[in-house]
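Morning!

This is the sequence you dropped in the shared folder:
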Amino acid sequence: MNIALMAITSLLPVIGWGFMPILAKRSGGTAKETMLGTTIIVFLVTLLFSLFLDLQYSGIPFFLGTCSGLFWGIGQWLQFEAIDRSTVSQVMPISNGSQLVFTTLFAWIFLGEKYFGWTAFIVFICLTVIIVGVALATKTSLNKKSDTNKRVYFIIIFSSLSLACYVTIPNFFNIDSSLLFLPQSIGMLIIAFILNLRNKHNANAKNVLKNFSTGISWLVANVSLFYVSGYLGLGLAFTISQMCVLVSIFGGIFLLKDRKSEQEMRQVYMGSMLMVIGLVIFGIAK
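The structure's back. Tokens below.
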């Protein structure tokens, strides 16, 4: 692939996943309504994509793709729940940082992306720097409503674990990305319907429709990530994609008006700088 095209494609997950939580927050509705709107548009687009290309599916890859989608559905719903309980600029640094740790660990264990000696030391240092950056960017929340925040942290960790499984499964079984998106969307839609069937109140159609934009943002990020990971490897492609945390942090502050004091903004700037340094060196090391 052309280097310039690769660079542009590598940035699409940054834009798509960076704006996704912002669009979800602006669209309103509950986490379950957001999930339903997101997954319906994703399913419709991937179905049209499959019909247009006349793709032929086989049983096992289709089943594995659906399992990947189930993990995404669980992880994304939990992330939306965390955002509902907090703010985009607080949740996303923790979410992206923990996703990077889990994905790197899974890539090392299951995908053979192993690091030894000096490279392993640099990777460890980079992950530590990123975690410190996350802690700085979200530091103020630790002193407010500690019981609620503990629940939010647990929700984010389980979300990130599930999302790491979602990106690892297709790479472990080497499933062609073009044959992946429809079964993934089916798995996602199953989770969304289960969540809303268990809901005591009917989903608001207006809120569901408004979250179609959230689904489009996810499609941009997801398609480009799996395409690029075929060239760069999952670990490196996912590392680059985690730059989306900057879009989420500053989009949350300036577009969603997440309130920050002057001291909190200094911590956000310092934390963001550390995350960027860690991610860049991490990418170079890999």
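Headline: The chain has a mean pLDDT of 87.

More detail when I'm at my desk.
O.
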